[in-house]
Amino acid sequence: MKLAVFDFDSTLMDGETIEFLAKSYGVEKEIIHITQKAMKGELDFYESLKSRVGLLKGMQEQKAREICQTLPLNPGAKEVVYGLKNKGYKVVCFSGGFQFATAYFRDILGLDGEFSNILHCKNGRLSGEVGGEMMFGFSKGRMLQTLQKLLNISQAQTLVVGDGANDASMFAYADKKVAFCAKEILKKQANIIIDKKDLQEVLAYA
């Protein structure tokens, strides 16, 4: 058995979930500014996440769910999951985004699991609060170590794919570190760089 871990936003999915939510709610400009700083590593991930989710306070929960279930996947997303599973991989998604999206697309893509954050809702609206397993800059690395121990999978048997600064923590625990259409800060820590927007390119390194 081998393990492949994908980021969701701007990796499996084409864009940032929170920006799709922000556009619908009229706070896109403010949220994009914070997102860009976080992805470049200029802002602590936890602080940026809390700030961005806070701007969504009052949004209808049903509207947020609908947006999260109609997000555009990147080219090759379904094919790469299928291809990796055929090569004996367990395929998992780690996302600093939200379960509204990752739980839905887990089934669409055939993922073996997903770990993400939960938008707190009250009386049918987003409260502006967030919690979950992927709140910090170190979260993905820590969760990867946990999965490796549970599944008895080594660093040499692990492939990770991401695009931004908060994916760097899992690069330390995988021999195959793929920067997919990534920010420069992540490319510097990768040993596989894919700039073509087609996830099937990952299969050549699996």
Question: What's the structural blueprint in terms of helices and strands?
Answer:
Blueprint: E1 2-7, H1 17-25, H2 28-39, H3 45-54, H4 61-68, H5 77-86, E2 89-98, H6 99-109, E3 113-122, E4 125-132, H7 139-151, E5 158-162, H8 168-171, E6 176-180, H9 184-187, E7 192-194
Parallel strand pairs: 1-2, 1-5, 2-3, 5-6, 6-7
Antiparallel strand pairs: 3-4
Question: What features would you highlight for this structure?
Answer:
206 residues; alpha/beta; Rossmann fold; seven-stranded mixed sheet; 9 helices
Q: What portion of residues is helical?
A: 25-40%
* Element pattern in H and E: EHHHHHEHEEHEHEHE
SS content category:
alpha/beta
Count of individual domains:
1
| DSSP strand count | 7
CA radius of gyration is 16 Å
Mean pLDDT: 96
Q: Within the largest sheet, what's the order of strands?
A: 4-3-2-1-5-6-7
Level-2 CATH architecture: 3-Layer(aba) Sandwich
> Remind me, CATH topology?
Rossmann fold
Q: How does this structure look, described?
A:
Strands 4-3-2-1-5-6-7 form a 7-stranded mixed β-sheet, sandwiched between helices. The longest helix is centred in the last third of the chain and has 13 residues, at 139-151. The protein contains 9 helices and 7 strands. It has 206 residues and is an alpha/beta fold.
